[in-house]
């Protein structure tokens, strides 16, 4: 049965064209119904062009008269723009959660339908997305703060998860413990990594290395039941495949993420220029085109779709502001996978069991 995913159609830098193109691609390739949220007079003509020969493609428009821009102050925009695409879209997810809960309780209500959805994707203002999700969806039991998680490519070809990458500038040891649990469940249920290795990002592997936050967090993670904690890890471990889930505060994680993106751009640009520099290298480039394309694909953020906002009561995926239609399509896929995997119930159950162990201790 198709799953309903909502897309903020006015979020990206070049909205709404990438969102509409991405929604159409997702509806073609995945078992989803996509709901584009935004001003109908803007979205309808563009969508009509893209579905001209596919009248029954499951892409729909849900009206919203306002949207939050990258230049808006998140807290103020969330309060004042009450009909924003983010608020309308996340309300649809809230309605979907309520409907599914009612259905599971034995009440004769549909778990899907008009006004209901299983997940939300935006390539808009990250701060506004987090604030709106917290306000509209609320937090999971046992979670104090949400965390943004992102997929990182590794030399082993397997994905690695890094969190938090910007939802919280400051965190305490309890927050990092919750991030570890959330990352563990996501890696296990969505990335399909059995017994994922969880590491704490620091400046050395030794227990004595790091700042006060990492030193205070380390013993808490070591005592965490059911988590395969491997101790401190360093920046290089993000990419060598030695760790499946890397935990840090949002300040460190965001710097690591943005630095990594800059290095990827430097490497791909430099390699492209080198391959075009001489006739010999151009011939070599033609011969190695398939390998170069595979290299770019492994490092392309659009392949990974977006960062799940873990800890809120629902599915919210946040993509790059520069997302193209491919990134939007994959963001919709990630939202659907997240919803199918029942990640949030796993997070709550694990945190409940952890709290019970602490109480007994």
From TrEMBL:
The entry's keywords: Acyltransferase, Cytoplasm, Lipid biosynthesis, Lipid metabolism, Phospholipid biosynthesis, Phospholipid metabolism, Transferase
InterPro entries membership: FA_synthesis (IPR003664), Phospholipid_synth_PlsX-like (IPR012281)
EC number: 2.3.1.274
Quaternary structure and partners: Homodimer. Probably interacts with PlsY.
Enzyme class (EC, first level): transferase
Its job: Catalyzes the reversible formation of acyl-phosphate (acyl-PO(4)) from acyl-[acyl-carrier-protein] (acyl-ACP). This enzyme utilizes acyl-ACP as fatty acyl donor, but not acyl-CoA.
Source organism of the structure: Edaphobacter modestus
Biological pathway: Lipid metabolism; phospholipid metabolism
Reactions catalysed, as given in the entry: a fatty acyl-[ACP] + phosphate = an acyl phosphate + holo-[ACP]
NCBIfam families: plsX
GO cellular component: cytoplasm
The protein's name in its UniProt record: Phosphate acyltransferase
UniProt family annotation: Belongs to the PlsX family.
Principal place of residence: cytoplasm
Gene Ontology MF terms in the entry: phosphate:acyl-[acyl carrier protein] acyltransferase activity
One Pfam family cited in the UniProt record for this chain: FA_synthesis
GO biological process: fatty acid biosynthetic process; phospholipid biosynthetic process
HAMAP family reported in the protein's UniProt record: PlsX
Subcellular localization: Cytoplasm
């Amino acid at each position: 049965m198709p799953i309903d995913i909502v897309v903020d159609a006015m979020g990206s830098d070049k909205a709404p064209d990438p969102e509409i193109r991405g929604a159409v691609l997702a509806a073609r390739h995945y078992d989803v119904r996509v709901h584009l949220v935004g001003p109908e007079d803007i979205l309808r003509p563009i969508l009509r062009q893209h579905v001209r020969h596919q009248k029954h493609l499951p892409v729909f428009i849900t009206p919203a008269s306002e949207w939050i821009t990258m230049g808006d102050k998140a807290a103020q925009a969330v309060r004042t723009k009450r009909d924003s695409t983010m608020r309308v879209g996340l309300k649809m997810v809230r309605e979907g959660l309520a409907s599914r809960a009612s259905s599971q309780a034995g009440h004769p209500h549909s778990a899907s339908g008009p006004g209901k959805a299983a997940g939300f994707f935006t390539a808009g203002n990250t701060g506004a997305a987090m604030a709106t999700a917290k306000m509209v969806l609320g937090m999971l039991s046992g979670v104090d703060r949400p965390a943004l998680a992102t997929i990182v490519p590794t030399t082993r070809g397997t994905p690695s998860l890094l969190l938090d990458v910007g939802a919280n500038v400051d965190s305490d040891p309890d927050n990092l413990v919750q991030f570890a649990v959330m990352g563990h469940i996501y890696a296990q249920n969505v990335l399909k990594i059995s017994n994922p290795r969880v590491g704490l990002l620091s400046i050395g592997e030794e227990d004595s290395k790091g700042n006060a936050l990492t030193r205070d967090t380390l013993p808490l993670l070591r005592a965490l039941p059911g988590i395969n904690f491997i101790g401190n890890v360093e920046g290089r471990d993000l990419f060598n495949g030695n760790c499946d889930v890397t935990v840090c505060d949002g300040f460190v994680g965001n710097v690591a993420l943005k630095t990594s993106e800059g290095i990827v751009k430097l490497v791909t640009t430099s390699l492209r220029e080198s391959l075009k520099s001489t006739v010999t290298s151009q011939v070599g480039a033609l011969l190695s085109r398939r390998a170069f394309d595979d290299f770019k694909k492994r490092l392309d953020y659009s392949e990974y779709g977006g960062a799940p906002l873990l800890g809120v009561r629902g599915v919210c995926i946040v993509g790059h502001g520069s997302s193209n239609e491919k990134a939007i399509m994959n963001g919709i896929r990630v939202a659907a996978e997240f919803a199918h995997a029942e990640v949030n119930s796993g997070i709550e159950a694990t945190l409940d069991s952890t709290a019970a162990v602490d109480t007994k201790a």
